[in-house]
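Researcher: I need the complex structure. Ligand is beta-L-fructofuranose. Inputs:
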Amino acid sequence: TAVKSYAAVDLGASSGRVMVGRAGRDSLELVEAHRFPNRPVRTPEGLRWDVLSLYAGVLDGLKAAGQVDSVGIDSWAVDYGLLDADGALLGNPVHYRDTRTEGVAEKVWATVPAAELYAATGLQYAPFNTLYQLVAARSSAQLAHAERLLLIPDLLSYWLTGEFGTELTNASTTQLIDPGTRDWSYDVAQRLGIDLKLFAPLRRPGDPAGLLQQRVLEETGLTGPVPVTTVGSHDTASAMAAVPATGERFAYICTGTWSLAGLELDAPVLTEASRAANFTNELGLDDTVRYLRNIMGLWLLQECVREWGNPDLGELLRAAAGVLALRSVVDAGDSAFLAPGRMPERIAEACRKSGQPVPETPGEVTRCILDSLALAHRRAVAEAQSLADHPVDVVHIVGGGTRNALLCQLTADACGLPVVAGPAEAAALGNVLVQARTHGLVGDRASMRRLLARTQPLVRYEPQGDAAAWRAAEARLA
Ligand code: LFR
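Model: Output:
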């Protein structure tokens, strides 16, 4: 049977990559064509993405990938570039960890109360939701001159093809989409003075997104026509499409800079209890809802490692494995950990404030982080099941965190459920599979998942240890 090649552009908060997926009816393999750093820059105005260097990485990656049948793009969510009437980019996109949204939510809620906002959009409160960013930018010269707003993957897609669009799974993270109609929330936008005309028409995974422009073909050495195919352009939507679940009763945790932990549902959960628990209803493939909670994730560790001058990660994890379990834990869901900098001190402060021993050595801090993440995973998985009335018997971990065996085992222990870990490159695989499906190679979501389960190396972790210790640790944070 035919095997086709797809390029998956997958941009994460700390690196970007172009992967080549070769998919057939019974085969799926992924190779890395190019990986490049994503280094945010602190300018006098604030924290910015270096989006031109990302685009250069994408072009280098497509060149390294060689001839492919299609290209798909995914990245982190919520951030955007603004274009003027000539289609030129107005400045560097603002990083979602920038502080410009501090105090903005309160202003928004004075116009649209938080409960109404949740009922209309189903989105968790996070200071970086595009809605708050746009309100923060309301009186900026840039926004005044903008004719178009493109989310990051849509911006790169525009540069590659010359065509505009707004991909739906990522648009659902703006807090301007109604998860019931899967269309714009016109009322919310109007009340907050957000001009929806800035957004290009919505498109869905599987929709065509144009062809690589002549200039791009020349630069990359590819022979046209090469189509760009719309995938779940939010990396978490693509990663979820690559959860190798074989049944319906599963929870997932997409791990990396963030841990996104929750369920795949047919309909949003918009109850007051769900809002209070800060669960989000983002949109997934095929009319699904990604019901999940954002947990700070390995960001906590990445930031410490940066502060410690990049020691060897393997050694750090071995040291952490030898530290007494659950000695001190912090709330890994707390947005107090959102901003970069001074992470070991901030973790120590949180332990001190909650009357727990302060972790001193890098090994102790690392253990505190991993225990805290596992605990946050446990809470999210348990609360999602009860809020959505959707019980599970297995937790799938996908993404970069699957390479961290200690984190996977602790998560199994904390959840009291088996964990199936893998694939690590879930977002790129989900990206490839949606392209493959669009071009007629694999069938529905279930058959995509069966193909993953058959072809990807997965590791199973059985829950061990002391369930009471996790309950006690949870109580310490309550
Ligand atoms: C993960 C992710 C999360 C989103 C955060 C910010 O990479 O896309 O889903 O909440 O980044 O965009």
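Model: Summary of the prediction. The chain has a mean pLDDT of 97.
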